[in-house]
Amino acid sequence: MMIRSKHAAALARSNLRCLATPPTRTATSLAWANGSRANGLGVPTAKRYYDLALAVRRPLSTSVQRYQSGGASPYDHIDKKHELALEREKLEAHPDEVSEASSVHGVFSEKGVEEPEKNEDMLAGVKEDLKTIKDTFALDEVPREALNLGMAGVLPYLATSLSTVYLAWDINHASITGQGFLLSGQTAEVLLQIIEPIQIGYGAVIISFLGAIHWGLEWAKYGGTVGYTRYAYGVVAPAIAWPTMLLPIEYALISQFCAFTFLYFADARAVVRGWAPAWYSTYRFVLTFVVGASIVVSLIGRGQIADKINRLPSPADRVKALRDMQISEMEEEERYRRDKIVAEDEEGDDEEEGEDEEEE
């Protein structure tokens, strides 16, 4: 009991000391005191310090006390007369206004508010598609130097394609009327046989160059060092391109069309992986579109005269003819060698017979 009473007495003395001694004047308390004087609150200084001391020790009760001391909110006032009038009103039924959508509230509209009728543009979808095409072919982010050189690079391919179409039309015109429009049928056919290998060879050069670009990006360490995966682009591209020169014209054009398309998707994938600039996929799409359209036009033009011209021997046919010629020459040499051996043997036999006769 003595120990407990001593602790109680010490606790009481500490509480009285805290209440009797004013708290230390801080910058916050000084600002609050100056604001109170300016507003004319007229609260004694000692009482202010006492209230602050209580607020520190009893925050919950002080907060409730401040809330109750404030003015009543106008929203807390209950109008009993108005509520009683609403209770006595009878609800009216309007079945003609009830529908499946009457209880659904629009997300971007208000219930019961008539919205003005919107003028829908019937060509909005077409305009949006045209805008997308325009933005795609704008090429604003592509460097001017790369764009100019790239477009200049596809012009020879486009020129050979248009030349194929014109020569095919001239050959058809000559077969119908007896003479061509600007060139004779035979001259147009000879020029066509010269232009088609040029188109195939130039296409192989372009495909090889598209693969070599990735070697340059790897050496420049664009997007980091990738290694053999990026080098594979430069190896596969010429491996696909150059064998097409041994194929017939139609098969060579189709093979190169597939090669251009495959390389475009590979380049687009490289852009997604960060191995190429962001504008490179759009740039490649435009160039691939021009080259692909040129190949399709060439195939259409050649298809119109497939049965009216002599088939130009392909490199594979020339290789086969060269091989057959070499085999024929080897057979001829072997036949000549055998005949020579037989002739020498016969001469030797005749000489032996002559010597025998002389001895007899």
Keywords for this entry:
360 residues, mainly alpha, DUF3429, transmembrane
Would you give an account of this structure?
With 360 residues, this protein is mainly alpha-helical. Among the domains are: 142-312; 320-347. It contains twelve helices and no strands. The protein starts with a helix and ends with a helix. Residues 1-8, 18-22 and 35-56 have low confidence and may be disordered. Residues 334-343 have a biased composition (Basic and acidic residues). Residues 344-360 have a biased composition (Acidic residues).
List the helices and strands and how they pair.
Blueprint: H1 2-20, H2 27-39, H3 45-57, H4 59-69, H5 80-88, H6 124-138, H7 144-177, H8 185-219, H9 228-241, H10 249-272, H11 280-303, H12 315-359
Helix pairs in contact: 3-4, 7-8, 7-11, 8-9, 8-10, 9-10, 10-11
Keywords: Membrane, Transmembrane, Transmembrane helix
Region (Disordered): 330-360
Protein name: Transmembrane protein 69
